[in-house]
Structures are given as structure tokens and as C-alpha cells.
Amino acid sequence: MCYPTESTEWPDTIPKPIIRLLDHFFTLVDTNADTVGEALAKEIFTPDGKFTATYGSFEGYDAILKSRQGAWQYVRSRHHEVRQVFISDRNGLELVLFGKVEIETLHEKRSIHEFLVRVDFAHSETFDPRIRRYQILLPVPRGQPSILE
Q: What is the pTM for the complete model shown?
């Protein structure tokens, strides 16, 4: 497994394909490459998926495909680490993730932020999981209401 989830505390009932998908997701968003948007749209999200990041909300294949444009405008490096995962529904298809992200800006300023994320997975008979909704709860994304409102 890659670094984003190697020290994560997982509930015993989380299937390995979901763990691998989340690890792949965080590895992708920590990668500065032109192909990341396409990989997110094709490999991570459902065709009608919704991806809410700190810099905007993207719904559907075409929007997710373009979601990483500008994501590295001020950032030199980004490193997510998922610390703990909680199951939020009976079927294990809705998870809440707690972690931290370390960011270095182009001006060499480093900062560490905690994050709280809700992830909903689409039900799959073949269990090739895909994310239906990825929603950052904290820090509250720009233009989104507080989770307490």
C-alpha cells in the first residue's frame, strides 16, 4: 500500500477493494500531473459522481475530468494521510475519514491541516467500487455552508 493509508485505523468490515480505491484516490490528488483529472473521472468516481474539494464542487464525468485544473496553482507539494475511518451506514458504503494534509506552497511555506471527509460508494455487484460522492466536511470548502448550519 502507498503512504496515504498505510497507518490508517480501519474498521474490520471495510473490504480491501475500498481501501485500495481510497489509497489510489489520495495518491492521485497528491500527484501534480495533467492525467490526474482523467484518472479520477475514469478510475475513482461513478459517471454521475460528485467531488467537493476545498476549491470547488464538481459533478459528473466531464466536471471531474477538469477538477484538477488549477489545483497546483499555488502548491508545490501535497501529502494526505488518512488516520482513522468510521462507518456511517449499515452497508459500509458510507464512510467518514479523519486525517491530515501537509501542504508546501510555491513560496516554500509549509502547513498542516486536519480534514474530515464523507465518502459514499456506489453499490456494486462485482465489487469494483467507485465513489458516488466525496465531500470535505472540515475545513469547510469555499462557498459551502458550515456543516453546523
A: 0.90
